Amino acid sequence: MKRTVCAKSIFELWGHGKSPEELYSSLKNYPVEKMVPFLHSGSTYKIKIHTFNKTLTQEEKVKRIDALEFLPFEGKVNLKNPQHIFSVLEDYGLDPNCIPENPHNIYFGRWIADGQRELIESYSVKKRHFIGNTSMDAGLSFIMANHGKVKENDIVFDPFVGTGGLLVASAHFGAYVCGTDIDYNTVHGLGKASRKNQKWRGPDENIRANLRQYGLEKYYLDVLVSDASKPSWRKGTYFDAIITDPPYGIRESTRRTGSQKETPKGIEKCPESHVPVSLSYHLSDMFFDLLNFAAETLILGGRLVYWLPVYTPEYTEDMVPWHPCLKLISNCEQKLSSHTSRRLITMEKVKKFENRDQYSHLLSGQCLPYQGHNSFRERYFSGLTKRIAKEEKSVQE
Amino acid sequence: MKLLTHNFLSSHVKGVGPRGFPLRLQASEVRIMPVEFNPDFVARMIPKVEWAALVEAANTLSLGEVPTEPIQGYEQNEDFLRTMHHILLEVEVMEGTLQCPESGRVFPITRGIPNMLLSDEQTEA
What we know:
The structure holds two protein chains of two kinds.
Chain A: E1 9-17, H1 20-28, H2 32-39, E2 44-52, H3 58-66, E3 76-77, E4 84-91, E5 105-114, H4 118-122, H5 138-147, E6 155-158, H6 165-172, E7 176-181, H7 184-188, H8 207-213, E8 220-225, E9 239-244, E10 255-256, E11 279-280, H9 283-297, E12 298-311, E13 326-335, E14 340-349, H10 360-366, H11 376-396
Parallel strand pairs in A: 2-3, 2-4, 6-7, 6-9, 7-8, 9-12
Antiparallel strand pairs in A: 1-5, 4-5, 10-11, 12-14, 13-14
Helix pairs in contact in A: 5-6
Chain B: H1 3-8, E1 24-32, H2 39-45, H3 51-60, H4 78-90, E2 91-99, E3 106-110, E4 113-114
Antiparallel strand pairs in B: 1-2, 2-3, 3-4
């Protein structure tokens, strides 16, 4: 429970039912020997009522607590600091526009622990000093850190670090973090701000400042301006986890360094940020590079966690990039629009990486199923363009 | 840039391969940033470090007495770990350069951040 942002609390269930009467008879069937350690005369306790999708008055809550008098509570009530907390949980469904008179389900249990859902609020991107157009939602960044099995004293790397959102979550769990990004401005915290009503980024807006904001600066190792397709690490295994959200080519462009002489636009304020070139970076190549990089630099047992954008109508499971050294652990979908989604892919290194060249011909053939997604950008907007075409047609008629 | 990171960096200039390590460090501005000492983390890093490269970099920055190799039983030796902690994590090169020992190509370090970008002719095939 110290890790999950997906569970609010955990209770030891003592009884449940679809009505109060069913609940009470269920409780009467719960073995007394199991209750006694928490109800004996030396203990202190309190009872809380939680209702989901309905508000009760204080009077109504007290009535429910009183109805539980038949339980063999022998301890003293202590509302401030009880040893044991018991909860009645009433489920009134999921539709706030249609709240039933009586609950669908009622549960009674002994509270054991809370999850980490408050991290979603305390690390909210809304309050973060430095954000970008595609900064990861706080809840998702913690889920990714959990998928990466990030723990104290790990080294976690993000090759598409952006504003460092994923590093923040890993640092929260005690890992030392580093990252790279091809965009000089983002890594340095310069240029146009992503917040509404703000023109340029302020002096406290960079990745290090984000960690400092949460008291996690000691976990900051380094960030570098670097092209993820051309990594500059010496041969070896350094990272316990690689956790990243590569660009999909929609709100951030996919780029890499190459030989065409093309000056990128929009660097008015920061001329020194000149990226030598900006070639288009096909999505399938990017994932091939990422998997190869992970296979080479992860320690054995280390994890790669990343988002894979897909055009849902054409998606099949064998489109998920693979690598002989990495085992697929999980693949979870998040819908983005009616015809696109992204999948959270988790892989674990299970085999030693032998030779850089060995894998190139193997993988490009296998990655072919994903080739279609190189025009992910076109497909993403295809729904929109079809609608516009339809509207234009109906206007003309 | 911290010396721990420098120890992992290598030049990816075309044709250079393993001869691109270590990058020759030159610093015009260095600062010391105290970082909370964590012996477990430092002990974990010791086996990953290329010692000769670290000594060379530390000497370039005139950091004083640098152990030439990890001592026996370093995991329990707090003095040793504290020294390594300082060298690896608390010394930051703010302005300077990293030079590929084979090709001579220079990567600048600005505001503590190295820029490793190359144009196509210079990158690994």
